[in-house]
Structure formats: C-alpha cells, structure tokens
Amino acid sequence: MTTQKQERIDKFLWCVRLFKSRSAATEECRRGRVTVAGQPVKPAHMVTPGTTILVRKPPVTYTYLVTGLPNSRVGAKLVAEYISDLTPDEEKSKSIAGKTLSGYRPRGSGRPTKRERRDLEDFIG
Q1: 81 and 94 assigned to the same domain
Q2: pLDDT digits 0-9 by tens, 68-94
Q3: By the 8 A CB rule, do 67 and 81 touch?
Q4: Is 83 exposed, middle or buried (0-12, 13-18, 19+ CB in 10 A)?
Q5: Over the stretch 27-39, which tens digit does the pLDDT of each residue have?
Q6: CA-angle at 22, arms to 20 and 24, nearest 5°
Q7: Is the dihedral of CA 36, 39, 40, 46 positive or negative?
Q8: pLDDT at 43 over 50
Q9: How many CB atoms lie within 10 A of CB 123?
C-alpha cells in the first residue's frame, strides 16, 4: 500500500505564494473563491499532485495544476516546481485590462475630491 502525500489547500496556496498569508488563503476558501473539480472547497481540503485548482481573484479566474507539494513556503523562483499555470490567455488579459481602467492621478495631486471620485466611478461603471 502506497500513501500519497497530501497537504491542506490553504497551506498549499500560501506555500506557493498565491496569497500573502495563510489566513488570507483560508478566508478565500471560506468565501468559495477556491474550487477543485468545480466544487468550492473548505480550507482543510487535502490536495495531492495532479489536482487542478481554480482560484478566483476578481475579475480573473486562475487555473493551476499541482505538480508537487512543498514542505514549507518556497521562494518565488521555486514556485514553478510545485504548480503549473494553466490559465487561458483570455483570463490573463482581463487582469491587464482591469489595471488600465483604475485611473491615473499625477504624482503629488493628492486625494481625489468627492466630485472627482464620483466622476471616476461613473466612468468605470
């Protein structure tokens, strides 16, 4: 009998640097933004290599394939050893488009006034 290595999904997401803290990963699982096989998962859900994970960070839904399980949080250069990014290009382009619509304020101009903020919100939608 062979036992396959497993790890909690919230810890895994934190270890591969998809979230800044483990508590942030736990909260996103509780909100239903992390799914495995089309089903939202709880933070204690166990993942194994070969599992496909969908992580929704509005407006983009990222798709990752688990290729390995780290023992602890890994450096940014080592993340590719543990996950493969399967996110379609259409989803990635949503992220870029969202950042360009955020608005630009010249440095040193201060906070927007109430009127400027409302105009910006009306423009963005």
Answers
A1: no
A2: 999 999 999 999 999 999 999 888 887
A3: yes
A4: buried
A5: 999 999 999 999 9
A6: 65
A7: negative
A8: yes
A9: 9
Query: What pLDDT score was predicted for residue 109?
Result: 82
Contact 85, 41 (CB under 8 A): no
Domain carrying residue 105: 89-125
Q: Find tokens 């859900």 and name the residue.
A: 45
**Number of CB atoms found within 10 A of residue 57's CB:** 12
Q: Which of 12, 72, 20 is nearest to 44 (CA)?
A: 12
Q: Is residue 54 located within the same domain as residue 75?
A: yes
Question: Same domain for 60 and 37?
Answer: yes
Number of structural domains in the chain? 2
- pTM of the predicted model, to two decimals? 0.75
